[in-house]
Amino acid sequence: MNYTIRITWYFYKSLIIWCLLVSFFAIYYVFEGELNIALAFIVKIFGYASALGVRYLNYNSSKTNFYFRNAGYSINRLYVYTFGFDFLIFIILISLSTIR
């Protein structure tokens, strides 16, 4: 289990900037009152889709992620773990930002 967390963290580091930018963008507009929470979740889902699209278009999937594949981890499963962890952080941050 500890090794899975470490591998997921290494995989998440390649997506962390994009995920944090989308999260802070959505939280800022929720805090300003221009978005409601449901739309913030939709923005976050579109952020995940755009991250997947950019990674798919910019990287040749047959030449990347050798480390993760050789370690025996599925790239799709790592995406699920990474986005699940990021979404959990997003829920915590958005709940803290709505407390006034």
Characterise this structure.
The chain crosses the membrane at residues 12-31, 37-57, 78-99. The structure is a single chain. This protein has helices at 2-13, 16-32, 37-58, 66-70, 75-98. It has one domain (2-98). The protein contains 5 helices and no strands. The protein has 100 residues and is mainly alpha-helical. The model has no long low-confidence stretch (mean pLDDT 84). The radius of gyration is 15 Å and the shape is elongated.
What's the arrangement of secondary structure elements?
Blueprint: H1 2-13, H2 16-32, H3 37-58, H4 66-70, H5 75-98
Helix pairs in contact: 1-5, 2-3, 2-5
Tell me briefly what this model is.
The protein is an all-alpha fold and 100 residues long. It contains five helices and no strands.
- Strands, total number: 0
Shape: elongated
Helix/strand order: HHHHH
Number of helices: 5
Q: Which percent bin holds the helix content? A: over 70%
Instruction: Tell me the Rg in angstroms.
Output: 15 Å
Strand content: under 5%
- Runs in which pLDDT lies below 50 for 5 or more consecutive residues are none
**Major β-sheet profile:** none
Count of the domains: 1
Structural class: mainly alpha
Mean pLDDT reading: 84
Distance between the termini: 38 Å
Features:
100 residues; mainly alpha; elongated; transmembrane helix; membrane; transmembrane
